[in-house]
Write a structure and sequence with these properties.
about 325 residues, alpha/beta, five-stranded antiparallel β-sheet, 8 helices, elongated
């Protein structure tokens, strides 16, 4: 069994569409609090992609309101709920027999319908996309419990990137532990350890250098190479002969192209399967900087990509 896990956010619609092309079935997980508009788009893609599927309404943040117990217990139906269970089972049978002839024959002939008969009757129309079962569930099992204590291991989320004259500024929310200037922190996405050379507290457009931040604080760090997205396929080649552009600026040029490719000019999706060849350029002894090269390459990429022809892969 091959499993493909795709997010339902609007930024990843193209990934969901491509995944559905190669799948035999799909499970659409929804929050019990409410269905968002993008979830409907994903459901329509599922239908267009001719994938059979089921829907799971899961509760996580609203656990206490929807699923008050963490334990799953199998037991006989309580006597005071037998009538309700029988009523809901009959409603399910009446709904399924409209899309399954075999169950309809048994129901109309007043024959007994066993649990296995009902399961098979649900499966048959589901496979041919005439019926979509909805299950209730809980996402609690895979949640991480954080104490919010400064004594625990550091857990922080990078939620915003900003380019400034001092380099990339990465905003962090500290959920547990303490982050300190000079510490080495572990990036779970890349598996790399990076040092925190500078830690600041932001207030409007002002920043204050600090030595550490405890759980609950929102701070920013300089010098931490962190990306908000990644390109699926990108090649960069430096073909410059000589010193038209100093070597210390080449990495900034490549970084500028990569960031620009993460958000296309049409609808903001990543631009894939591209090759960038740097053949010439110029620099200025005073005005040139890593940030200037990076920003100019982002602008150049977006200007040129708007004139290109695109093909669907």
């Amino acid at each position: 069994v091959n499993i493909i896990d795709t997010p339902r956010h609007v930024d990843f619609t193209i990934e969901v569409e491509r995944a559905l092309r190669v799948l035999d079935g799909a499970i659409l997980v929804l929050c019990s609090v409410g269905v968002q508009s993008q979830s409907i788009t994903v459901a329509n893609e599922e239908i267009r992609g001719q994938s059979s599927g089921i829907i799971v309404r899961a509760s996580s943040n609203w656990l206490g309101r929807r699923f008050p117990s963490e334990k799953v217990v199998t037991a006989e139906v309580l006597s005071n709920m037998e009538a309700l269970v029988a009523e809901k089972r009959r409603e399910l049978i009446e709904m399924v027999f409209e899309v399954d002839d075999k169950l309809a024959e048994a129901f109309l002939a007043d024959e007994p319908i066993s649990p296995s008969d009902l399961e098979e009757a649900i499966r048959r129309p589901t496979v041919v996309r005439k019926f979509v079962p909805v299950f209730m569930g809980s996402a609690f099992k895979n949640k991480i419990s954080l104490s919010g204590s400064p004594t625990g291991p550091l857990v922080a989320l990078a939620f915003k990137l900003e380019e400034g004259r001092c380099g990339q500024l990465t905003y962090l929310r500290v959920y547990e532990g303490v982050i300190k200037k000079g510490d080495f922190i572990h990036n779970v996405n890349t598996g790399k350890k990076v040092k925190v050379p500078r830690l600041v507290w932001m207030h409007s457009n002002e920043m204050e250098d600090i030595q550490e931040a405890h759980a609950g604080r929102i701070v920013a760090v300089f010098g931490v190479d962190c990306a908000s997205g990644s390109t699926a396929k990108f090649e960069f080649e430096n073909l410059i002969v000589g010193q038209a552009i100093p070597l210390n600026f080449i990495a900034s040029i490549e970084k500028g192209f990569k960031e620009a490719a993460n958000s296309g000019s049409l609808i903001g999706y990543p631009v894939e399967y591209i090759r960038i060849a740097l053949t010439d350029g110029a620099s200025h002894a005073v005005d040139s900087s890593e940030l200037a090269f990076k920003l100019s390459l982002i602008y150049a990429f977006r200007q040129e990509i708007s004139t290109c022809m695109f093909t669907e892969t």
